[in-house]
Amino acid sequence: MPILAVVAAVNAVFLVDTAFGRTVVDQEGVTLWRPLRRRIVRWDDVDAFEQKESGDGDVSRVLLRTGSGRRRVLPAPMNASWGLDNDLGAEVRELRARLAMVRGEVGVGGRSA
């Protein structure tokens, strides 16, 4: 039984850390705010934004991939089953557009540079 309690405690910490976190996107990069820590990923270290899909095809998680290949799960927005965001696919598209703009790949109004 003690092993089950340890597993439950670890899962609870992960869920709280993810559920009560937030992602802030600004001119410096992407800041991952979580109750237990804060991490800033500068735009020049962001390689891509990825999405993980659930069995029904809905986006269930958003990840940031760095130039070194490391992946970070973005806290909030969560998917619709958690009730905080109904369209994570749109969030991923917005993040990818911002990355393209920062890199100079897209001009004003979304046109290619």
Can you walk me through this structure?
By secondary structure, this protein is of the alpha+beta class. Helices cover 30% and strands 31% of the residues. The protein contains two helices and six strands; from the N terminus they run αββββββα. The chain has helices at 2-19, 88-103, and strands at residues 22-25, 29-34, 37-42, 46-53, 59-66, 71-73. The strands form two sheets. Strands 1-2-3 form a three-stranded antiparallel beta sheet. It has a three-stranded antiparallel beta sheet with strand order 4-5-6, covered by helices on one side. The model has no long low-confidence stretch (mean pLDDT 78).
Please give the structural blueprint.
Elements: H1 2-19, E1 22-25, E2 29-34, E3 37-42, E4 46-53, E5 59-66, E6 71-73, H2 88-103
Antiparallel strand pairs: 1-2, 2-3, 4-5, 5-6
The structural class is alpha+beta
Gross morphology is globular
| Chain-averaged pLDDT | 78
Can you tell me the residue ranges where pLDDT is under 50 for at least 5 consecutive residues? none
What is the total tally of β strands? 6
Using only CA atoms, what is the Rg?
A: 16 Å
How many angstroms does the end-to-end distance come to? Answer: 60 Å
Which key features would you list for this structure?
3-stranded antiparallel sheet; alpha+beta; single chain; globular
Please provide a brief summary of the model.
Helices cover 30% and strands 31% of the residues. It has 113 residues and is an alpha+beta fold. The longest helix has 18 residues.
